[in-house]
């Protein structure tokens, strides 16, 4: 007891306190209020408190600078933890004040409602008695399951609500007539592999620059002169006007489909006459021909298909003329387009002076079928961004019947071009030197 009294009566030097060996202020299983030392960034006088229970108490060393509890030395093999050398010195009965460390009572607390992984050692300065006055500082999360779980639950619920709202908006937008019509046309614009290959080859021929081999001659006195001679690169451009233009191709399409409709109509009526004469009942050929018929056309159907295909062809030509200079040209082709259109405009003006009925030539009269493939890729964008937003009452997307007819004829045109790849894509290119 004398030793304990002597120790407690030691004078304090340079702001340091002697170790307190009088006993802990709190005992095991006592209910207290505790500060969350890991997340506390404010003053202890205003920090929120949490309900806790003391598990055990021990004397531990405190760093006087940071006021943090130093871990115990790791016994057995291996090196000691942080502060192990200092603890070793203290184990050799060195004076507490000489080492600069303090020894205080610390308590291992468990926060009520929290997982045991949040249990920690805290000093008595971080613990408050469970009084009515102190309970006014209780945190909103005090007594809840885990500190991070309420936030995680709220964020998860928020993400689920946002995902559900997005899904509802997508479902609502996809179910709207405009989006259904746009999706129908988008599916109709999908190119088969054969035409995709043609489109990729056309891009490589124009966009990829080819460098000729270096020219080595006696006239090149220096390497700098050789580099100047080799600066030009070669690219390929379409020969304009093309032998078979987009207008020619659309005319062939309309004529070919008209002929197919006439043949279908004639076959149907021939079969019908055989049925009326009774020959079809004893003829295997009549039955086979009837089973191979996919569509039955009347005279009204012939007239309607002819009219609608012409309207479709005119719509495609109008899209080509309007979008080609803006969306269907590579950068290497723009100078060629500007020069050619200026040249053809002068020629058309001269012809119009002699013959006032001669129409001016549009891009669809000059450019080949490769540009029609480029248009197919852009049609959904053009219809949704320009045709619809201009409040055009005749917009294709505003009427289901127009959309279905446009998509049907568009699929027909793609199949028509695919079956005539060699005829439609002659590959007439010309080499042109450009700056690297």
Q: Would you give an account of this structure?
A:
This protein has helices at 2-8, 84-91, 96-99, 132-135, 149-175, 177-188, 193-207, 223-229, 246-277, 284-292, 299-327, 334-354, 363-366, 370-387, 400-418, 421-424; strands at residues 31-35, 49-62, 102-111, 120-123, 127-129, 232-238, 429-435. By secondary structure, it is α+β, with helices and mostly antiparallel strands. The chain folds into 2 domains: 2-144, SH3 type barrels; 183-435, MRG domain (Enzyme I, Chain A, domain 2, Orthogonal Bundle). It has a 5-stranded antiparallel sheet, with no helix packed on it. Strands 6-7 form a two-stranded antiparallel ribbon. The chain is elongated. The chain starts with a helix and ends with a strand. 16% of the residues are buried. Residues 1-19, 78-98, 146-150 and 280-294 have low confidence and may be disordered.
Q: Kindly state the mean pLDDT as a whole number?
A: 76
**Poorly predicted runs of 5 or more residues:** 1-19, 78-98, 146-150, 280-294
User: Count of helices?
Assistant: 16
Along the chain, the helix and strand elements come as HEEHHEEEHHHHHEHHHHHHHHE
CATH class category name of the largest domain: Mainly Alpha
Terminal CA distance:
96 Å
What is the annotated CATH architecture of the largest domain? Orthogonal Bundle
Number of distinct beta strands = 7
- Quickly give the structural class: alpha+beta
Supply the number of structural domains: 2
Biggest sheet statistics? 5 strands, antiparallel
Biased composition (Polar residues): 1-11
Main location: nucleus
Protein name: MRG family protein
Domain MSL3 chromodomain-like: 107-136
